[in-house]
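Record 1 of the preview.
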Amino acid sequence: MSAVTGTKLLPREHYLNVNYGIRSWLLTTDHKRIALLYLASITLFFFLGGFFAVLIRLELLTPAGDLVQPETYNKLFTMHGVVMVFFFLIPAVPAVLGNFLVPMMIGARDLAFPKLNLLSWYVYTAGGLFTLTVVVTGGVDTGWTFYTPYSSTYANSHVILTALGVFITGFSSILTGLNFIVTIHKMRAPGLTWFRLPLFIWAHYATSLIMILGTPVIAVTIVLVALERLFRFGIFDPALGGDPLLFQHLFWFYSHPAVYIMVLPSMGVVNELPFSSNRDTTEWRIQPGPITVKTAMPARDELTSAVRAGTGSLDPRDDRRHLQLSNEVWLDGVTLKRFLLDVSTLTAPEADDKLTRGTTLTTRQLHRDAQGELACLLSRNRCLGEARPEAGGVSGSRLLAEIGG
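->
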C-alpha cells in the first residue's frame, strides 16, 4: 500500500503537453494546436476591429466631429470592415472549430495535409501583418469593398498595401478549404458514408467549396485594382476606357457567397447542439434535406452573381430576370432535396421504424415515389411534391408529413 501511495502518477500525454516551448508551437503540425494558433490570432484581430468600432460609435455620439476628422473617420470605418470581414468573420469558425473538430468527427488522426495546414496559418499571419502595417502607417479610406474608380485612381491612402494583405490572406482560405475537402473525401472512418456525416462536417464541406471557387476571383480582382493604380491600365476606370461595374461583378461574385462562409459553419455548430443531449436522434440520420439546403444556398448565390456578370448589368430592372433564372435552379434543388429524402429512407436503418410505424408506406412505394421524383427533376417539371399517379406512390409532401407526424 505504501509503495502504491508513494508512486507519482504522470499526467496523460495530450496535444498540450506533448512538447513545450515556442518552437514546438510554431512548428507543430497537430491540427488541434494549429486551431489554437488560429484562435489566438483571430482573437487579436477581433479586438482590433472592435477597437475601431468603439471609436466609430464614440464619434457618432454627437452630430459634430468631436473626436476625429472626417478623413480619419473614413479610415476607421474602412479598417473596421477590412479587419472584421477578412480577418475575423470569414476564418473564425472554419479555421478554429473546423481545424480542431473535423478530423476527430470523421475518425481521422489529422487533416490530409498537416504541413499545408500550418502553412495556411503562416499565410494568414503574413496577410495580417500587412494590414497591421497599414493601421500604423495611416490607414486606408476606400471602404472595405475597395470600390473603383476611387480605390484605383483617387484615394491617397495605402490602398495597395491593404489590398496585398487581403490578397495574401485569401490563400489561407484556399489552403484550408482544400485541406478540408480532401480530408472529408479520403479520410473518413470505415462505414462513415456521406449520409451518416454530421451536419457540422457537411457545413464545412460546403464552406470549403465556396472558399476554393470564390476566393481566387476576389484575389484576381484585387490584383487588377493594384495594376490599374500602379500602371494606369484601363480596367475599371472609365476615364481610361475601363468599366467600374466590372469590379462590382467580380467583387460580389465572391463577397455575396462569402456570407455563407460566415454563416454555414455556425449553422453546423448549432445543428450539433440538440444532439449532444439524450434526445431522440432518429431524424438526425435523415440528413439530405438540410444537407441540400446547406449546399444549395451558396450555389444559388454563385449562380445569381454569374448571371449578373454574364448580362453585364446591375440595373434593378434586370433583377426579375436574374431572380427568375436562379429560382428555376433553386426549385429543381428543392425537388432534388425531396428525391434524396425519399432515397435516404431506404438506407437509414434507424429511421425504418419511425417511417413505417402507423402508416401503410412500404419500401416498394417509397422506391417508386423516389423514381417519380427523379423523373420530375430530369424533365425539369415543376411538380414539387404533388401527387403523381404515374409515380405509383405517395408524394414527397405526404412523406414529409408522415415523418413529421
